[in-house]
Amino acid sequence: MKNSAKYFTLSFLRKEKISRDVFKFYFDRVKRGFDRVKLGSVEQLDFLAGQYIHIYLPVADEKGRGNSRMFTIASSPLEKDHIFIATKKGRTIYKKALFNLVCGTSVKFYGPSGGLVVDEIKKPSYVFLALGIGITPFRSILKYVSKKNLEFPITLIASFSKKEEMCFHDELLEIAESNPNIKIIYTLKRINDTLIKKYIKNINTHSYFIVGSPSGVLDLEDVVSGMGIPSDKIFIEDFEGY
Hints:
The protein is of the alpha/beta class. It has 2 domains: 6-113, Elongation Factor Tu (Ef-tu), domain 3 (Beta Barrel), CATH 2.40.30.10; 126-238, Rossmann fold (3-Layer(aba) Sandwich), CATH 3.40.50. 21% of the residues lie in helices and 33% in strands. The protein contains 5 helices and 13 strands. The chain has helices at 93-99, 136-148, 169-178, 193-199, 214-226, and strands spanning 6-17, 22-28, 30-33, 42-44, 52-56, 68-72, 82-88, 106-113, 126-131, 154-159, 182-187, 207-212, 234-238. Strands 1, 2, 3, 4, 5, 6, 7 and 8 form an 8-stranded antiparallel beta sheet that branches. It has a 5-stranded parallel beta sheet with strand order 11-10-9-12-13, with helices on both faces. Strand 1 and strand 2 form a beta hairpin. The chain is globular and about 50 Å long.
């Protein structure tokens, strides 16, 4: 599938609260291009499960940063009516603009981008390690893998600070109940080598995806490396606060 990043716009549909401070933001999946040849052309956004997009808003924050931020597409490519991101509330000018979007607003995007995707050809086994809102790419991947009945093992260990902050809990547990290749663990504990080894057998045979805050990802990368996992089997993506 051709999946080169481009500029386009999508229409904002609605937002929906899913945990104490986390909201989904839904956008129509029909996009309009920005290139001169196809200006005004209409097509549906295509992406791979686990990829991210840049969202542009007409603001510059108090730190002088530009008007775009990166967000994982938390929906699956097989959910055709819309895409959505999920993000926490914040006090920055950018976050305030995002949370004040009006239904029907045309929003500029760039993407999709990112290589945190599963290999449908080789079908290796995966261990997903999510720190808080870092669970979003894994929601996209798990929905996609389950719907396509892809038969390779995936274990998700998702760590949250508080129970009320947990995202996608019931939805992902339901996927695991119907798919023997998928195992889901939610925890309020810090992910360490002991916790990983409790749920993961033959630890050196899996690919490890680690997603969360920059500091959390670095710490967890050290944990996984310290277990003897080679660097070519560790893939990371960090989310900065916006």
